[in-house]
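Hi everyone,

Forwarding the result from last night's run.
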Amino acid sequence: MIKATALPLFNFRYLRTRLTVLYLGLFGLALVLSAIAIFVAVSASARAVVREEMRASGAVYDQLWKARSAQLSQGAGVLAQDYGFREAVATNDEATVRSALDNLRARQGVDGALILGTDGYATSTGLALDDPTLDTLFKGLDSGRIEAGVLTIEGQPYQTVAAPVMAPVLIGWVVFAERLDAAQMRTLESLSAIPLSASVVIAAGQHADQSQPTTIKTAEGPSMLVARPLPSVDPQAGATLRLTYPLKKAMQPYSGLFLWLAVIGMTGLVIMTVGTWALSRGLTRPIAALDEAVHRIQQGEYAQVPVTSIDEIGRLASSFNAMITDLRDREIRLTQMALQDQETKLPNRLALEQQALAASDGWVVLFGIERFSVVRNAIGYDSMALLLSALAERLSRLAGGVPVCLVGAGALGVVVRAHTQSQALASARRLVEAAQTPIRIGRARVDIALTAGVAGQVTGASEISLVDRAAIAVDQARAARQGVGAFDAAIYGDPGDNLSLISDLMTALGNGGVSLVYQPKYDFRSDAVTGVEALMRWTHPRRGFVSPDLFIGMAEETGHIRRLTEWAIRRAIEDQQAMAQAGHDLLVSVNISGRLLSDDSFADIALAEVARSGARLCFEITETAVMDNPDIALRIVERFAEAGIAVSLDDYGSGLSSLAYLKQIRADELKIDKAFILGLDETARDALLVKSTIDLAHSLGLKVTAEGVETPTALALLRGMGCDMAQGYYIARPMPMAGLLDFLQTPAATEAIVAA
């Protein structure tokens, strides 16, 4: 059972970390949004409270201004109506005027008082007025535009109130002035429910009424402002009462709330972190166990995960375990199918190879059932499967219980232990002899004949498996007509080296790597060489000389023999023309593969080449070449004969010679195989066969050429038997074109043959 391993913290490659970060991010976002909402709500509430307080304070200040102005105006009016004061003003009694002003100033609690006559006379107490200020005040009062307002005296704003002095006409004004300094502003500020700041600002122009609070930027940060215009004595310089309140002071009462919110948020974040980590750990632990199980499955193990819940994760784990169980069962079945023949239930070739590899001293013995297809067709496929099973059981019992495997159709294999090849061969021979007793299948009693091939381990790497070598050994044993045989690497050769042989051969045709050599044919009648046989030679650039039996046989198997033969015909025609120019009129014989005797298009090309050149050729064919497709082959041979091309039956007597085909083939020459000529001077049987063949050929109107003449005795016997021509090493070996011309120019060679 798989348990999830511990994962490193905060590694974003893991789902646990990503889930934790996701949940924390969402919670943090919710906290931030909540904090923003709370802050915005509190700020809006605080602003609303401040705005209402500022609006109320502005109204209160306005009423206070008006009340103070009315109080001062009343006091100034009392003094202006006093008869004695008016008389003192009219008579310019400055001492009386000043005394009255001081007395009233003290009673009213103002900073200064003055009398300003219509003639420009002015007397003041508590004030230092310069001429421009007096001029501004006089213009304001004289115009009747204002009786109370703000006047700037020595750079300081003053609240001034004036009352006219009538005697009975206007002779001047009594003016009270109260300084609007910081102390006065603090007094006003103390009347507000909030700690705002008040100030009077004098500036050029008229100021708009800003009784509705607005937000401005100050040195203390954003602040709320209420600006109420005040009446001004100077029409060119407006006065404004400015009430400001920093908003940060409005938020100070909520700082504790914000602190608690921060503490609650951080505590919630910590709790959320721990809870989220625990939750994600619980979610990802089964997934991690599944992941580890998958990796172990990739390594070839079958692992299952614990089912810890009944939710989706638990159901997934249960389904995973069920899938693993099914996969294991399926692999077992597939392994059985891969290592077992489904029809006979015997171990197969793969199982045999595994057994062979597992045994260091093991030898593979392969038993080939002789006449397998004949027996199978006779008893049927089902009965053949029973026969194979019974034979395998018998061999296993004889081999000491070793499993016997079905390698292929009609081939059973077993691994035997042996230290040497001779011991392995002895074991194989014993098994063959003991297993060849008849086997009863149903009512039929089947005789068994076996051929065994033995192959053992080889030193170094080998491209051929042990089982393949044992199968080759079976074929080698059958070829040697032996019941048991070991794999012979020398006989097998290197077929892999021949895989590219044909492509190399086709390349050699184009670059001159392939050539023709000629072996002379001696005519007994004329005592001279009257013909030659063209033989193909190939020298490979890497392998050197390649046997014609090898590359011509492979060319026949791969279908390249036609191109090779067409090239040989053209080259033979060219060489014959060169011989004629040298003064030698010789018949040139070219070997034609039996595979080409059913190819009409090849016959068309060959006839066209002969007709074009006027060459005198002889096509040598084997008597068995016409057996595969006799009708077409005989027709093509007939076409050759009608075109004047001589036809020679080559290797007569080497195969299953048929007098019927000999009678039907329109031939001009019969060539006796060298197997009879080589022993001609040793056994009377060969001489009798050769003599009878010569007589038979002459009776059919055929000339006879004897191949393999290598001794003067054989040549003399053939001459005495009436043979027409002789060919062999005694006459001359195959030679290239230049050597042939030299041979023909040497009379001594022919004289030596005649003398023999």
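The first strand starts at residue 112 and ends at 117.

Cheers,
N.
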